[in-house]
């Protein structure tokens, strides 16, 4: 039986229905808005009829393409009407009449021609499309320009051993990234002052524009985690992300779609134009994730210290070497802040490790659980790091009402069948700035440095010498040394033995995680009842670093060092040379002089509680003018040629001692 005999009514009904739809659409397009309702209702009902006709019409029937065209036109027409009603439309119709759903979209940094480009990436049910927002003149609709696309049937993730070494993309200097953060915070403060003083809207808009420019540059230049995808028919593409969590999300979303029966295809220029044109209306992420795009009534986030205890995890199907990392958002992107130790060969790791994480306008905490890989052949050639497997990941919002309490808040994050138990509490910036003298003067923490060195009959406190020696012995090449948080319980244990002058200190140091030792050294300086560079000289340091004349600045900054008490000066010079040696290993440990100045500057200069009240502006403004200056003071000395104690003291005779 032929096609005509099996479906006797299909040709006539199909042709008639298609012609009717085309006539209705033509009529609708020429009608005024007030006359659209009845024709649209007819189009809606006829579209359903077309769906049924296509189901019962053979693909090789001569009317099949006409029915397809009619269905596509009617669906697109209805979609264009619905856009005004529901702007969150997430689908577009393909030329074959199929629905192409938008699954995920977001801004990513692509490495193109050895430079960084900010792209808007769209993941549809069958294709990944990378686009750039076109520059348009005022009053015109914004549009995207497609840079490239890959059908998901052709998309593969190269394994570490398969991937080719990427073209060298020079990382943005750390000090320039930190400078951007400082500028952003300074501009934020200026905007707040203008608003408080009811300043002119033009002035505020100018400041916001400058702030956006700096935030955009920071967002573009800060990501370093490689995410490579490959078209099996040709080219590879490389993105740089700031978070392993984000990389995992994109990979998982693509792999989930690839489990379906996908077919390879090539889009015609018209089809590509239609798909790219739909991106503007389909997108779910409308703005670049910078704070200048936030509304005034949005939460500024938390500033201070988040204490997190990672207790344990359950739900692993087989034994593995497991650890967790913690990420928080800062300046519009996520940063890895802490890492537990590896719990070996277990299905129920029990870490019970506490971390102190500095928050800078943070709103979210992420926990990622990894299986440690010890196979050195599995190295990512994009960054020469061994790739560990993500077993699960989860995220929680940092609700101020929940975390801003004195008590610990315990919670569980569920991730891919795995449950990670953790506790957290938050210390505001106001509280974290306090320097509290120890009531017990027999220890070292919270005790004046002159008292400790006199008691020990030493020039540099024993705790400083031992921590520095241990870091230089086995931690100088540790990635993120002094930046990555040590386990808080380990730091407290070291604090206790140093305070008690326990004879087992050296044995304990040799067995302790190096980040805990680095954390103990930072804690010692942070808990001094008076900063190492003293309260009395703090205003002079702030004035000296602000001098524009190099010779005047040199004279002033050296004169201030000469004015320090001997124990403070000798300890400062000892620490200075150590930090310079750490920075010499920057290609390995990723800690530049500027990174180290950022970590230690506020710790060595921040005034004691009584003095600091005059200098603090807002608890939320962690990158305040004072903090920037504190970083710059230490950076000045770190970048200075070696400074000799004997030479400084010899020159004291030639200078006034008044400051």
From TrEMBL:
Residue intervals of the Rho-GAP domain: 447-645
Entry-linked Gene3D superfamilies: C2 domain, Dbl homology (DH) domain, Pleckstrin-homology domain (PH domain)/Phosphotyrosine-binding domain (PTB), Rho GTPase activation protein
PROSITE patterns assigned: C2, DH_2, PH_DOMAIN, RHOGAP
Alphabetical list of InterPro entries matching this protein: Abr/Bcr, ABR_PH, C2_dom, C2_domain_sf, DBL_dom_sf, DH_dom, PH-like_dom_sf, PH_domain
Domain of life: Eukaryota
Domain C2: 284-413
Keywords noted in UniProt: GTPase activation, Guanine-nucleotide releasing factor
Protein's cellular compartments: Cell projection, Axon; Cell projection, Dendritic spine
Domain PH: 101-259
Pfam families: C2 (PF00168), PH_19 (PF19057), RhoGAP (PF00620), RhoGEF (PF00621)
Protein name: Active breakpoint cluster region-related protein
Taxonomic placement: Eukaryota, Metazoa, Chordata, Craniata, Vertebrata
DH domain mapped to chain residues: 35-84
